[in-house]
């Protein structure tokens, strides 16, 4: 199973790197993440240049697509050429977005009638697409999930691992990366966030 971690110029390192690092701890179980970019090299919001591992077109064939955020996401959604390269299909893919990445999903029509999570800065721009923004860190309906706040990228990764490999695999990854002495708390918090986000969707009118 291949994961495209979509990473645009001006990206937030926490979004792309936390998600990809957690997911790649599952390589031995067949789940592998790739930094997926629209150009050979993109530069983060803090000036860190990163070489993409896959081109943006890879997102169309990946089993999972996670769209990270950044300081230029509004430029991305205004670029018809870039948007046209993102052919996503939740009927056969898991699709998630982090913070301003929700703008990309909204632009693609994947949040029509679906509430979403995003960060405080991006909230008004997501709402401009007619999307209801939740004051929650994670929300998932079917195969589409969104997360709000940089460190909630761990919840997106937890959701992907749980959906593809099961809860035990997610527990193992989270336990490994948790701060020493906070293992149980870290694991349970992430799993609780994912369960709550999915349960809320299940009971939403």
How would you portray this structure in words?
The structure is a single chain. By secondary structure, this protein is an alpha/beta fold. Helix content is about 40%, strand content about 20%. It has helices spanning about 15-25, 75, 80-85, 100-105, 125, 155-165, 165-175, 185-205, and strands at about 1-5, 30-35, 40-45, 50, 55, 65, 95-100, 140, 145. The strands form two sheets. A seven-stranded mixed sheet has the order 5-2-1-6-7-9-8, with helices on both faces. Helix 6 runs antiparallel to helix 7. The protein starts with a strand and ends with a helix. The mean pLDDT is about 95.
Q: Compute the average pLDDT.
A: 95
Structural class: alpha/beta
How big is the Rg?
A: 16 Å
N→C terminal distance: 33 Å
The helix-strand sequence is: EHEEEEEHHEHHEEHHH
Percent of residues in beta strands: 15-25%
Helix content: 25-40%
Report the total helices. Answer: 8
Backbone shape? globular
